[in-house]
Amino acid sequence: MTSATSSDTHREQNLRARWHATTAAAGAAPDRDPAPYADRLLTAWAEPQRKYHTTAHLADVLARVDVLMQHPQEGTPDRPAVDLAAWFHDAVYRPDRSENEERSAALAERALPELGIDGARTAEVARLVRLTITHDPAPGDANGELLCDADLGVLAGTPEEYAAYAAAVRAEYGFVPDEAFRAGRAAVLRQLLELPRLFRTAYGAAHWEAPARTNLAAELAGLAEGGADQPLAEGGADQPPGM
What we know:
Elements: H1 3-25, H2 35-45, H3 55-69, H4 79-88, H5 100-114, H6 119-131, H7 142-152, H8 159-172, H9 178-194, H10 202-207, H11 209-226
């Protein structure tokens, strides 16, 4: 077994254990077996078209949720709802489609009641999944701030980590010609840089905001050097290359 295979196996084992703990904390009925749902979700997260939105991304988001939960923030997040939203937020992912978040939320709305999770928490999970379309939680939305910061935390990696993330996003959009990709990706980066705050939790603002902006600006400068912006209209993509 190679080290990469061993790492993947270990990650999957940890994710399965976490799924079981999360569904129990969320109020799943004790007579419902959560294992088949973990099977289906992990199979979806491992689909071949994924290069960034993989089980590694899922594990990273959950790990950043853990980090953020260790630090004070306004409000009291519903931790099981946030964890479940992390599991479902990219459960449906096709880089050539724009309805991924809506279909992922709908999947949660079907699956969670089958596990016996109540309607209020199911609705909150679906709301959080849909929130990842904009990553723009309202002030005081403790759950939304936690999930969105955990999802965007990849932007604050080291230059090498960020380069690997950007390369993986490009690989997912391999069907888009270079010129069109540069234009679409540049639009996403500018939109992010124009936000008054990328991160809404106190920890995210203090530790991730500055490096994320540095990384985004560096990628945008590199795209500008690659060629002039053109509208993203080729390759069948109806969603710009983004998160």
